[in-house]
Amino acid sequence: MKRKVLNFLAVSLCLSWGISMPAVAQDPAKIWLRQGPNKLMDTPVVMEQMDIARDLAGDDPYFLTTQRLQCNDIDDTYTIVGPPGFNGSFTGAPPAWKEVPAVPTQVFDNVYYVGGMEVGGWLIDTGDGYIMLDSSYDYGVEEILLPNMEKLGLDPAQVKYIMITHGSIGRGGGDHAGGVKYFNETYGTKIVLSGPEWAKSDQTSIDHDDVIVPTDGQTLTLGDTTVTMVNTPRSVGGGGLSYFIPVKIKGKQHLWATYGNTGINSPLANIEVYLASMEKWFTYLDNLEPDIAISSHPFVDGSLDRMALIRECNDRSGNKNKWKGHGGWQNQECQRNPFLIGKEGARRYFEIMDQCAYVRYMREAAGISNTGLACLNGLDADGNCLPLP
C-alpha cells in the first residue's frame, strides 16, 4: 500500500494552557492501561512510523493521550486493555462492565456535555432546540443522559435531532445510538446516521420519515446552527459520519470538528477503508479550517480532564456550572477554553489519528497484532513475526 505523505505540521508546535500535567493526561485507569512487562514484536519499519506519530503529539498531554491510544503505543511499562471487568461484548445479560456518568459540563456558550466517562453525549443549543451528538447506550438514557440534563436544567423535549457518529438503530444501539429509540418515541426527535448503518438498523423501530441519511458535505440547520456532515466509514461495508459544528466561546464563533470513527478495525481491508476516509476528511478539514477537535469518546483525547479544568475555573469565578467568560480569573490556565486548540492544532490532532491508522496497517501487514505484542502468522527462524501472505 502506497502511503500518501501528509504535509505534517512542525513538531515544535506546542500548545500552552499553563497547566502542569503528566506525559499522559488521563489517569491510566481512565484510559485502560495496565503495567507490563511487555515484549514488543514491532519491526524498525513499524517503529519509524510510530515515531512520526509520537513527533506529531510532541509534548502536548492531550495529543499524547490520543496518540498512545490510537496507535496502541506500548512499551515495557504499559499495555492497553479493556475497561476493568469488561466482558468483551456490548451485548449479553448483563454485561460485566457498565458505563457511568461523567460530570455534566457546559463546555462552550452553546454546548453541553451530558454523556458518560467512556462514550460521548453532547448537546448543542441552537436557539431553536437542541442537537444531540451521540446518545450513549440504551440504558444510558435513564442512567446518564436524562439525569445529567436535569442537573444542567436542560429540557429533553427540546432535543430536535440526534446525530450519530456510528452505530445502527435498534438491537441495543451499541454505545452511540442507544438513546435513539427513546427520544424518537417520546419527543419525535429526528435521527441522522449513515446509509450503511441505517440499512443494518431495525427499521421497524422508527418512522422512516424521521431518519436523515446525509451525503458528503450535506448540511443540517436548526436555529442559528448549521452542521456539515461527511461520510467516514472505518470498515468494508461499514458506515460512520463526521461533523463540523459551529460553537461560541465568549460570543465568538469557532468551529468544532469531530470524527465519526475512533476505533481502527482489522483486517487490512478495513484499515484501508479507514485511511481512505481520513484522506477525504482532510479535504473538508482544509476547506473549513476548524479550530476545535474533540473525540466522540472523552477518554481518548483528555476531554474529561479538560472539562474538569473548566469546572474548576468556573468554581474559582463563582460560576459553578457555566462557562460564561474569564473576567476576574487570575490563573493562566483559566484564561482560555482548553478545547480551543487553533486551526493548526485541530489539523495536527487528525494527523495523529491518520498516522496511527497507518501504524496499525503496517503492523498487521508485517504479521504483528494490533498491540504489537504477538504474531498473527507465526515466527521465522530469527524469532520475528512472519508477514501476512
Automatic annotation (TrEMBL):
InterPro entries: Metallo-B-lactamas (IPR001279), RibonucZ/Hydroxyglut_hydro (IPR036866). This is Metallo-beta-lactamase superfamily protein. Keywords: Signal. SUPFAM superfamilies: Metallo-hydrolase/oxidoreductase. Residues 118-297 form the Metallo-beta-lactamase domain. It comes from Desulfopila aestuarii DSM 18488. The keyword Isomerase does not apply. Residues 1-25 form the signal peptide. It comes from the Bacteria.
